[in-house]
Amino acid sequence: MTSLLLKAEGAGNDFLIGTGTWADRLSHDQGLVVSLCRRHRGIGADGVLAISATGRDRMNLVYRNADGSPAVFCGNGTRCAARAGVELLGLPGRLVVETEWTVVPAAVEGPMVRLELPAVEGQPREVGVSVAGRGRRGWWLEVGVPHLVVPMDDVEGLEVELEAPPLRRHELFGSEGVNVNFTALGDDGRLVVRTYERGVERETLCCGSGVVAAAVVHMKSGGPRSMTVQARSGDDLTVEAPAGPQAGPVFLTGPTRFIAYVEPVDYPLS
Q: Choosing from 37, 74, 80, 206, which is the catalytic residue?
């Protein structure tokens, strides 16, 4: 198999995708992942995707965060990987992505990729968290990885880099912590989401599993079962749960973009 390294993004969530020997490197070399993902002394990315074909319509995906830590699922990463499976590995437009969380059916139509995720296990759990004397109420749930969804009246002027870290590492959520999603319903009916991602340790322009988590919480509060969600990047994604998010599959659809093929001039990067 040809060994390729590709820069891609899904709704502003950016990744390095590796095939062949690059896939093996990205899967096993934490130091390399950290070096490549650095914004100013590397290529820059929120994480890396190591992909390989496992059948005529199946592929395996290993995801690593920018800090080199593993995560069993990344929504936008899985969407980008599915497109790469079609365009780089020669798989059909309807395929299955084997993630470390679960097997995810995907449909690729040009830059748009739709994932079929399993029903959310259990209802979102309401939690109250106090940080520096300020109380926050939110909803905890898992979409492959744990999320805290904090509904607010407005998120535009929110200082996410200050507000999120104490919540992300709060003792209530154990040693691994949570991804923190601040949400607000816009006048046009779109749900606006801003996410601070663990493993990246900053606000990202989009978090696919966070978009799903936010939509599920809003559905629980009486929102429609088909929602448009606006990421910090300005991109719109669609979350659909025709039978309800606990009763049947949840679909995530959004854009992807291939940016460039890359070949670092020094390996390993220092």
A: 74
pLDDT in tens, 114-172: 999 999 999 999 999 877 677 789 999 999 999 999 999 999 999 999 999 999 999 99
Its pTM surpasses 0.85:
yes
Domain that holds residue 68: 5-118+256-261
Q: What is the pLDDT of residues 180-204, one digit of tens each?
A: 999 999 989 999 999 999 999 999 9
In order of 62, 89, 158, 197, 199, the CA distances from 139 in angstroms are 28, 39, 19, 16, 21
Please indicate, yes or no, whether residues 101 and 168 belong to a single structural domain of this protein.
no
Chain mean position to CA 217: 17
Task: Tell me if residue 74 is catalytic.
Answer: yes
Q: Quick check: is 159 in a domain?
A: yes
Q: Is 80 a catalytic residue?
A: no
Of 117, 35, 120, give the one whose Cα is nearest residue 74: 117
At residue 220, does pLDDT exceed 80?
A: yes
Residues 10, 112: one domain?
yes
Catalytic one among 37, 80, 206, 207? Answer: 207
Domain count, the chain: 2
Q: What is the pLDDT of residues 56-87, one digit of tens each?
A: 999 999 999 999 999 999 999 999 999 999 99
